[in-house]
Design brief:
Order of helices and strands: EEEHEEEEEEEEEEHEE
Largest sheet: 6 strands, antiparallel
Number of strands: 15
CATH topology: Jelly Rolls
Radius of gyration: 16 Å
Strand order of the largest sheet: 3-4-5-13-8-11
Number of domains: 1
Bound molecules: 6-O-phosphono-alpha-D-mannopyranose, zinc ion
Distance between the termini: 48 Å
Length: about 180
């Protein structure tokens, strides 16, 4: 059944939604095949297996024509220099999405299969993801990076696309901040 109009209380400091829907926790072991240094990934997964990011959702369901929201928080860190990030995905039926940075600093990496785009994200930045662009978020700072996402409920998450095609570039920590390198380097 369609859901009713609702108010969702957003706590801008604690970054909570109330009421809230499901929360997802992704640990290092959930990011298989994504970091360039697979040996380092395997060692971290078998060791402390740290939480890399969490996703807290509003109660709006992920079904066609609804417009769910979620808050993603990526921990600061890197694996052999490659900055901690979300898995990244493509929307199977090519729909757009909006991100609003809330806390910390990050980047929005997008790839359409040929072109790579990077948007620096800091609190107040809205990143627009056009239809057909796979998207991954990266924490470029040394505190947690959080952003709000709003997306079509029927968009779906194709993670296999990223495993097959990559993301065009990878984001590495440098003394000055972040450096993008070709995906295979
Ligand atoms: C944002 C949205 C979600 C997504 C989450 C984590 O909150 O884009 O749809 O699930 O980021 O990204 P991923 O699914 O790639 O792990
Ligand atoms: Zn998406």
């Amino acid at each position: 059944p369609p859901i009713s109009p609702m108010a969702i209380a957003f706590d801008a400091e604690r970054l909570t939604l109330s009421p809230e829907g499901p929360t997802l926790t992704r640990r290092m072991s959930d990011l298989e095949g994504l970091f360039r240094d697979s040996d380092a990934w395997a060692a971290e997964s078998a060791g402390e297996n740290p939480v890399v990011y969490t996703v807290t959702s509003s109660p709006v369901p992920e079904i066609d024509r609804e417009l769910p929201q979620s808050i993603t928080t990526i921990m600061p860190g890197d694996t052999s220099g490659e900055l901690w990030m979300t898995k990244g995905h493509q929307h199977p039926n090519h729909q757009g999405e909006i991100y609003l940075a809330l806390q910390g600093t990050g980047g929005l990496l997008m790839f359409d299969g040929e072109r790579t785009e990077w948007i620096d994200m800091q609190p107040g930045t809205i990143g627009y993801i056009p239809p057909g662009w796979a998207h991954r978020s990266v924490n470029t700072g040394d505190e947690p990076y959080s952003f709000l996402a709003v997306y079509p409920g029927g968009a779906g998450h194709d993670y296999g696309w990223v495993l097959e095609h990559g993301m065009g570039s990878r984001a590495y920590r440098t003394a000055g901040g972040v450096e993008l390198r070709p995906y295979s380097e």
